[in-house]
Specification:
The complex is a heterodimer of chains A (517) and B (295). With 517 residues, chain A is mainly α. Chain A contains 17 helices and four strands. In chain A, strands 1-2 form a two-stranded antiparallel sheet. In chain A, strands 3-4 form a two-stranded antiparallel sheet. The chains are: A mainly alpha (517), B alpha/beta (295). Chain A: Keywords: Cell membrane, Membrane, Transmembrane, Transmembrane helix.
């Protein structure tokens, strides 16, 4: 009558009850192709992603934007394939941090985890920044008072509003609340509808001759190799990785899908198909409507680059612009809350293996969520945002560029970890392709992009043009984040060397089966 | 396989979780039952639309599970040697769902939860899990007050009984519960009166109702202990509850509302208000319960 199944490796005497669930409590077979695709699109949050990335991408590659979006997907795809192999090999244990530690030892592993945390903390601050802009824009549209939209330019109001959003999102995440399936479907459908509406409205205005700075569609836009310089190309690809960030989630849904053999692959394909179509449509429509000049609504205007839809929704959609505000606000708010999960769990994991102070490993007994780590993620993200808001003339553009670098870094580390971890088990063409070639090529591309953008960002004109002592702010930011990481790593090494001596997590390869405690 | 009488104890590694263990222990001692300490984890999914959620989750889940097992060990250590307890880690959509699932799986007699969140003066306020259970459980739900300590022995059961249809079901449940137990029983009815005015008719109606209750109970009871009745009146349900004397070695029984589905609990308004003033554990019984026998 009782279906107690002793679960593997648990304390004797404790049964793990799972009912209709698999051992780990995943609701097996509950997600179909549509559901998985919705999750994929929801992770990418296209409305937020586009408003944050269109401007910086045009600044980097001009009209080559559609082509760059297409090639930018390639390194993401290659790394994700390798990542999936790691996930399949160690379904119960393993993240960027543990994999990198297993493959390369504690030092690079620590930096891999740090890269992920920094990237997610930076995106948190950018998400909150976009949400703040759209919040005041929406108020202005709602009350027909354009003055309200300007409140976002007041540094103190802006930073405090951001704090409110951050606290709310962190709290929801700490309580372990998740967006329900129905809400996800609605949010995704709404984003898609509004973005298509925006594109159609923009193209209609182009056809009617009322566009701001209409330029004719040119097939060359789709050729990424016409990008003026390799630096521009690298910056574009770095941004493209940001716009597809989150897509890899679809590939890692296994047990939960109705057919684990085919659903994740199909959902990943469908997701990227929809996202491609959407991005190309929006990119082309925006280019044709606005042009790349530096006029009021031109994509080259640094004033609007960090948050393009906030500026363009009005002229393009007229009275319906408020729908765009709602779409971006809802997508960035939902994303803000769910994004907390990433850095908080990674910090918790690092705390557990004593790579971070022990406090980070604390789990709330009531909500079963990483308590201290979530608070820290929120605090640091807000602090980062506040400092950036004061230092930078265009905080959003600069954070997105920094973010692109950080994603390249931790994806790259993960890709090489995959290659190294599987070095002894490359049997058959499939293994060689997925465990060696894909992640290796993906990793090398990311490394090159990372090095190039890092070097270029020293130029004071890079990004928003903010600089300190003639050195580009984006470079300084990246350096502060990396060197800060190294310093913290050394401090932790001094305070508690266990992790760095390989006592908590050992190096190994797929055949050695190093022990993950 | 003979059924072992058992209680599902909703455990979490907090003061509230400790309260539930204490109440579980008290009830287990009284009815010679076993405890099933259950810790419910949200079943994790990659359906959280987080860009890096999936990348950071596997480690986290393993750590969460390890931590939960440690918590369960701590919980088990709080159970005294004279009570048998087992520990169980559950995954479910929600804590409530997990507890109901455990009660079904173990064929449990009751679910014990911590009721109080921030109740004033040792009184009840209902937490969300308890509240959800009170509206859906097919088995009786026992609510532990904040800071509850299990007495060596429970000496009295107070049954709050109304005149509405359904009181027999409550009595049947109490009969089953108290069978062969050495415990005093007290039947009370609560009468709400306007301040400053006497309501002799209502009170005498209550008295005669209690007499009927007593007769029904006496003719069937197999419990050993004194039986008493009492009518409590006050200007509100809360005041009526406070007018009664309550012992630290006592638990209260109450039936669920007529609004409930035949076999599930639905806490009525009166019972809900009672809770706010009650200083002892409360066991809420479904109206149409199949009167589980402790054997």
């Amino acid at each position: 009558m009782t279906s107690q199944s002793p679960s593997s490796g648990t304390t004797p005497g404790t049964s793990t009850l799972t009912g209709g669930l698999s051992e780990k409590g995943l609701s097996a077979g509950s997600i179909g192709l549509l559901g998985a695709t919705v999750i994929g699109i929801s992770c990418i949050a296209p409305a937020y992603t586009l408003t944050a990335s269109l401007g910086p991408t045009v600044a980097a590659v001009g009209t080559q934007m559609p082509g760059i979006f297409l090639v930018g997907f390639i390194p993401m795809l290659l790394v994700a394939l390798g990542y999936r192999e790691l996930n399949n090999a160690m379904p119960d244990a393993g993240t960027s941090f543990t994999w990198a530690t297993r493959a390369f030892g504690p030092w690079l592993g620590w930096m891999g985890g740090w890269g992920l945390i920094v990237a997610t903390v930076v995106v948190l601050s950018n998400l909150a920044g976009v949400a703040v802009d759209f919040f005041y824009l929406m108020l202005a549209q709602l009350f027909g008072n354009p003055g309200l939209a300007d409140l976002t330019n007041n540094v103190i109001i802006n930073v405090l509003t951001c704090l409110v959003f951050m606290v709310a999102a962190a709290y929801i995440s700490y309580r372990g609340m998740e967006t329900t399936k129905a809400v996800q479907y609605v949010l995704v459908a709404f984003q898609l509808i509004v973005l298509v509406w925006f594109s159609v409205a923009a193209l209609t205005q182009v056809a009617e001759g009322t566009a701001f700075d209409a330029i004719a569609l040119n097939a060359d836009w789709f050729n990424p190799f016409l990008t003026p310089s390799f630096s521009a190309f690298a910056a574009g690809v770095s941004l493209s990785i940001f716009i597809f960030w989150g897509w890899d989630v679809t590939l890692t849904m296994n047990e939960e899908t109705k057919n684990p053999k085919t659903t994740p692959g199909r959902a990943a394909t469908l997701t990227v198909g929809i996202i491609f179509a959407l991005y190309i449509l929006v990119a082309v429509a925006t280019l044709m409507f606005s042009g790349i000049g530096t006029g009021e609504f031109g994509l080259g205007n640094e004033e609007i680059q960090g948050n393009v839809f906030a500026a363009l929704a009005g002229p393009v959609m007229g009275p319906f612009a408020i729908l765009m505000s709602l779409a971006v606000l809802s997508s960035s708010a939902a994303s803000l809350q769910s994004t907390f999960v990433g850095p908080a769990r990674t910090m918790l994991s690092m705390g557990h293996y004593q790579a971070f102070p022990k406090r980070f490993a604390s789990i709330s007994p009531r909500y079963k969520s990483p308590a201290f780590a979530t608070v820290m993620a929120g605090t640091v993200a807000w602090g980062f945002y506040a400092v950036m808001r004061v230092l930078s003339t265009d905080v959003l553009t600069d954070t997105i560029l920094t973010l692109g670098m950080m994603i390249c870094f931790y994806y790259g580390v993960t890709a090489f970890a995959c290659v190294w971890y599987f070095r002894d088990s490359l049997r058959g063409p499939r293994a060689i392709l997925l465990k060696l070639l894909a992640p290796l090529v993906g990793g090398v591309i990311l490394l090159v992009i990372f090095a190039t953008t890092l070097y270029d960002s020293m130029n004071p004109d890079y990004g928003s043009g903010s600089n300190i002592g003639g050195v580009g702010l984006v470079f300084i930011l990246a350096m502060v984040l990396f060197i800060g990481g190294i310093v913290l790593m050394l401090v932790q090494r001094r305070v508690n060397p266990a992790f760095f001596q390989g006592k908590t997590l050992t190096k190994g390869s797929s055949t050695e089966h190093g022990h993950v405690k | 396989m003979t059924r072992v009488p058992n209680y599902v104890v909703a455990y979490e590694a907090t003061e509230r979780g400790n309260d539930t263990i204490e109440l579980g222990v008290a009830l287990a001692r009284l009815t010679r039952s076993e405890l099933r300490l259950c810790l419910v984890l949200p079943h994790h999914s990659s359906t959280v639309p987080a860009r890096v959620g999936a990348v950071s989750s596997p480690d986290y889940q393993a750590l969460l599970e390890a931590q939960s097992l440690e918590w369960l060990e701590q919980g088990l250590a709080r159970v005294p040697a004279d009570v048998v307890a087992t520990t169980h880690l559950l995954y479910a959509e929600s804590t409530t769902e997990g507890l109901l699932q455990a009660a079904r799986t173990f064929d449990s007699d009751r679910i014990v939860v911590g009721a109080s969140r921030r109740g004033l003066m040792n009184r009840f306020t209902i937490g969300s899990v308890a509240n959800a259970l009170l509206h859906s459980s097919p088995v009786p739900v026992a609510l532990a007050p904040r800071g509850y300590q299990a007495p060596a022995q429970l000496t009295r059961i107070t049954c709050a009984i109304g005149t509405r249809p359904g009181w027999r079901a409550l009595l049947d449940s109490l009969l089953a519960f108290s069978e062969d137990l050495t415990v005093d029983l007290r039947f009370v009815t609560l009468v709400e009166v306007d301040a400053g005015r006497r309501h002799p008719t209502e009170e005498s109606a209550s008295q005669s109702h209690l007499a009927e209750v007593l007769e029904y109970f006496h003719s069937r009871s197999k419990a050993h202990g004194a039986i008493s009745t009492e009518v409590a009146s006050g200007h509100s349900v809360e005041a009526a509850v406070e007018a009664l004397d309550w012992q630290p070695t006592e638990v209260a029984f109450v039936g669920s509302s007529r609004l409930a589905q035949p076999t599930t609990i639905f806490l009525g308004i009166t019972a809900h208000r009672m809770l706010h003033a009650l200083p002892v554990p409360l066991i809420v019984v479904p109206t149409g319960t199949d009167a589980r026998k402790p054997h």
